[in-house]
Amino acid sequence: MNDAARPEGVPRRPAGDPSAESPRAAGAASVADPAAGRPGGDAAPPAPPTLEVTDLHKRFGPEREVLAGIGLTMFPGERVALLGESGVGKSTLLNLVAGLERPDSGTIRLAGQPIHAMDEDAAARLRAREIGFVFQAFHLLPHLRLWQNVAIPLLLAGVPAAEARPRAEAMLERVGLGDRSLSMPRELSGGEQQRVALARALVHRPRLILADEPTGNLDPRTGAAALALIDEQVRAHGAALLMVTHSLQAAAIAERRLRLTPAGLETAA
Fold it and tell me: Could you tell me the pTM of the whole model?
């Protein structure tokens, strides 16, 4: 990426593993498998997992084990809500999955690649290709126009600016902000900023969307609209969604709801 195009500031599976309850893990057909259900049983093989977390452990200091023996498997198009008390390690788990932190032991495979074992540069390249982030605080760069904010993942992945801009503008159109591509983040409401954040998360067609309290700063009506948009776009792109939330409203869009406790992951009601 040349300097002119670069935006400034871009900086054990334990017994009863809840992931085993996934319909994909049980061999059910994916909506993306066109051959599934053919007469005579000529079904295409299931897609490989998007994310595989096995026997994951993470400590902060010798006396505090935050994550102990975590196992989780997710498939394309799957939506998982991660619930749990504050401080139990939900955001830490997201950071580990994204390669932003290292586990003390265990493995994390993203699109078949061992992100847990990669150096920082390799993990950053894989993250740029395969992960989209949706944050509670949006994290839009205030000095960049909307299309530039959305284009950041493309530019970081080496897409030329001449190609990145129309792709970013098309993604803004998909989230209902096609006429605002030249606006600045300060000119938008909270719900509109969340739509920009979602466009940024999806523009490079990642395999995995990581969402950390995506409706935490939104009122109920705006939050419901943002959740509907996340659900719609994740389905359209076939990405897997792992969403940390305290909101039952947000958790309702997920096929699986898991609760993280000091003892590990369990299925939530």
Answer: 0.79
| Per-residue pLDDT reduced to its tens digit, 224-269 | 888 888 888 888 888 999 999 988 889 999 999 999 998 889 988 7
Q: Which residues of 209-225 are buried (b: 16+ CB within 10 A; e: fewer)?
A: bbbbbbbebbeeebbbb
Which residues on neighbouring strands pair with residue 264, listed in sequence order?
261
* Contact indicator for 86, 260 with CB cutoff of 8 Å: no
Ordered alpha helix ranges (H), 115-160: 120-130, 146-156
Q: Check if CATH label 3.40.50.300 holds for domain 74-101+117-267.
A: yes
pLDDT in tens, 66-99: 999 999 999 999 999 999 998 899 999 999 999 9
**Structure confidence by residue, pLDDT tens digits, 115-145:** 999 999 999 999 989 999 998 888 999 999 9
* 258, 266 Cβ separation under 8 angstroms: yes
Exposure string of 89-113, with b = 16+ CB inside 10 Å and e = fewer, is bbbbbbbbbbbbeebeebebbbbeb
The answer to whether the beta carbons of residues 25 and 73 sit under 8 Å apart is: yes
d(CA 223, CA 221) in angstroms, rounded, equals: 5
